[in-house]
Write a structure and sequence with these properties.
mainly alpha, Serine Threonine Protein Phosphatase 5, Tetratricopeptide repeat, 18 helices, 0% strand, globular, TPR_rpt, TPR repeat, OGT
Length: 285
């Protein structure tokens, strides 16, 4: 297989068939050769192929070269590759260009890409534009998008704690992890602790990062099981939820491990958690 790929790669400069060049690039990605794949996608782009620019953007983004990726996606769009809208939005978000990201997500939505519409809703929600975010997601839900419907219900619960949303939260739990967490919260406040625990543990087993923090809280607050809580917070940190640092730090401080607490407050603060930063200041760390 390697000899075949190397032979095809040696003929790259002479090849004027963009489809064949892109196919080789994809084969090289699958073979774990991203630098060689990038060469292929650049060649396809040089041949004027919009899909070549799109794949080049993906290759660059995967390797952290987001500014170059944004340029490649723009060129793909100029060539008519509408699938580039969402990916352009993602790299612009990473670059901190939120206005540009919103423009890209709106472009994706106008092109009929529901993922772009949802990304726009998420970005609006993160910026505190909750009503506008719900309106965007609700519009998608009205077209029959089950994920968007689950997102809307999750956000409605966060705003109202309306227990009449239970049916919709149950329907959305397997569509959007946040809906499962919201369902567990509803079950806790309606005195169904055993089912709440089962719901969160199921989310954790399914690999849903959002489940670990509330699961740790459940163990600590409802069961007074600090060992299980610590394991849950640490699992959440390993899965990428930086907010677990704060809760783990509080648990460590409560049992006298101030050095451990300061370390995790510091890690949480470094990842942008305001609660962890405030606690760190109070400790003088």
């Amino acid at each position: 297989m390697r000899e075949d790929l190397d032979g095809r790669l040696r003929r790259l400069r002479a090849c004027r068939d963009a489809d064949a060049v892109i196919e080789l690039g994809c084969d090289l990605v699958d073979a774990g050769r991203p630098e060689d794949a990038e060469r292929c996608f650049r060649r396809a782009a040089e041949l004027g192929d919009a899909l070549g620019w799109f794949n080049l953007g993906n290759s660059l983004a995967a390797r952290g070269r987001v500014e170059e990726a944004a340029d490649a996606y723009e060129r793909a769009l100029a060539g008519g590759e509408r699938d580039a809208w969402v990916n352009l939005g993602l790299v612009l978000e990473e670059l901190g260009d939120l206005a540009g990201a919103m423009r890209a997500y709106r472009g994706a939505g106008a092109a009929g890409d529901t993922q772009g519409g949802l990304q726009l809703a998420f970005l609006l929600h993160e910026q505190g534009e909750h009503e506008q975010a719900i309106a965007v997601a609700a519009e998608l839900a009205a077209t029959g998008d089950d994920v968007a419907a689950a997102v809307v219900t999750c956000w409605q619960w966060a705003a109202s704690h309306d227990t009449s949303l239970e049916v919709d939260l149950r329907a959305g739990a397997d569509r959007f992890p946040g809906a499962r967490v919201a369902l567990a919260a509803l079950l806790r406040v309606t005195d169904r602790a055993a089912e709440a625990r089962f719901t969160l543990e199921r989310g954790a087993k399914l690999g849903e990062v959002q489940a670990w923090l509330p699961l740790g809280n459940f163990y600590a607050e409802d069961l007074a099981d600090v060992e299980a809580a610590e394991e849950a917070y640490r699992a959440g940190i390993a899965a990428g939820d930086s907010y677990c640092h704060h809760n783990l730090a509080v648990l460590l401080a409560d049992r006298g491990d101030l050095d451990g607490a300061v370390e995790h407050f510091r890690l949480g603060a470094a990842d942008g958690d305001d609660l962890a930063a405030r606690a760190l200041r109070e400790l003088g760390g």
